[in-house]
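Handoff note, outgoing to incoming analyst
You'll be picking up this chain. Sequence as last confirmed:
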Amino acid sequence: MAQRRLEDFVPPPELFAARNDYAEVARNLFDVLVEVSGLQPGERVLDVGCGTGRVAAPLLDHLGPEGSYEGFDRDAGRIAFCNERIAPLHPGFRFQAVDVFNSERQKGTERAGAFTFPYPDEDFDVVFLFSVFTHMLPDGVERYLSEIARVLTPGGRSVITWFLLNAESLRMLEEQRDQRTDRASNAHKSRLSHDFGIYRVADLARPEAVVAYQERFALENYANAGLEVQHPIRYGSWIGREGTLMNQDVVLARRLSS
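Most recent structure output, in case you need it:
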């Protein structure tokens, strides 16, 4: 069967404004996922914060008939698009909306810090989150890492992207201070001036817009959840690095055996 064209899965502008590079970004994220996790055909995958299915579309062919995919997102419109355009193409693909919120500025019935993933224990070989923890506050991060460990099979892998603050990135932030601004809406241009100890944000009015975490906080919470980080961390270009895998920092971890 011919490989599906990702250009055929571009959502309408009301669901995803940055449509011009949609297919290119989808390919890049898929490549990162496969390279970092070693994802194989036939495996069972969970996409946390799946959005409009950018990674789900290329996984249709990669996972093959024996593989399966679950995705959830808080945006019901995007989930409806995925169920209309992607789910019918593979019997093992399923999307669902969750009514979860991350701060008092968001609407929802359940806080991210108390949310239980709607799947049984040890249900997935791979769980991945692209651009989720970069928009999530600490109680949600801690809870989600715990839930990721719960739903992974022993030895299963998680791939998560972050903006990590360590000696190098903090030094580079300071060196680039004159080129950055407190008004920026992305990590590439923001000073991340609002410091809450274990994390920094770009905008106090919208703290979830850009969230960067102290690396030690991230590593401690992986360990607390029973997830073993696989070094090296693939640090991203968001702070001005060159020759990186992607713009965000990519962390691979494995669930420890019971």
